[in-house]
Amino acid sequence: MKRILTTAALVCLAMPALAEGDAEKGEKAFNKCKSCHQIVSDTDETIVRGGRTGPNLWGIAGRQAGTVEDFRYGDDLVAAGEAGLVWDEAKFVAYVQDPRGFLKEELDDSGAKSKMSFRVKKGGEDVYAYLAQFGPAEAAADDAATATD
Questions:
Q1: Domain Cytochrome c: where (predicted)?
Q2: Residue 46: which of 54, 61, 56, 55 has the closest Cα?
Q3: Which residue of 4, 82, 89, 122 is surrounded by the most CB atoms within 10 Å?
Q4: How far apart are the C-alpha atoms of 98 and 82, rounded to whole Å?
Q5: Burial profile 91-104: b = 16 or more Cβ within 10 angstroms, e = fewer
Q6: 57: which residues sit within 8 A by CB, 6+ positions away?
Q7: Mean pLDDT of all residues in the chain?
C-alpha cells in the first residue's frame, strides 16, 4: 500500500498543474508566439516549428524561469528564476501580459527589464494550457513508477 501511495504522489508531483485555459484556443493563439518561439522535445522532435529569437517552450509548465540550455536570457529573468520563479499558469499569464512590469514586481526592482517585448493581451491562460501539454512529465511519471517497482 505504501508503494502505491508513493508512486501516486510521485506521478502527481511530476505532472504540471492542470491549466484552466482552453488548449485548442491556445494552439490558435500560439500562432503569434511562434514567430519567436518553437516547441522542440528533449529528443529533438519538432512539435511546432518557429523562430529562435525566444527560448524553446518545451516543458515550460513547472520549469524554473530562465533555464533553457544554450539560450541567452536577459539578466533579470535569470535572476527571477534563481530567486525561485517557476512557471505556473498565474505567473505565465502575468508575464506574457506585461513582461517588464511582471519582472519589476517579481524582483521588486523598478529597473528590471525583459527581452520579450510582445504582450499577449488576452488568452494567456489558453496559451499556457496549450503549452502545458508539451513536456517531460510523462517520462518523469514513467521513471517514478519504475523506481518504486
A1: 21-135
A2: 56
A3: 89
A4: 20
A5: bbbebbebbbebbb
A6: 33, 37, 38, 39, 131, 134
A7: 86
Please give the grid coordinates belonging to residue 55: 527560448
* 88 contacts 124 by C-beta, under 8 angstroms: no
Question: Per-residue confidence at 20, pLDDT binned at 50, 70, 90?
Answer: confident
The angle subtended at Cα 106 by Cα 101 and Cα 109, nearest 5°, is 75
Which residue type is seen at 137? A
Q: Can you tell me the distance from the alpha carbon of 145 to that of 95, in angstroms, rounded to the nearest whole number?
A: 34
Q: How far apart are CA 146 and CA 148, in angstroms?
A: 6
Q: Give me 137's grid cell.
A: 512529465
Residue type, 69: E
C-alpha cell at 148: 518504486
Average pLDDT in the 129-140 region? 81
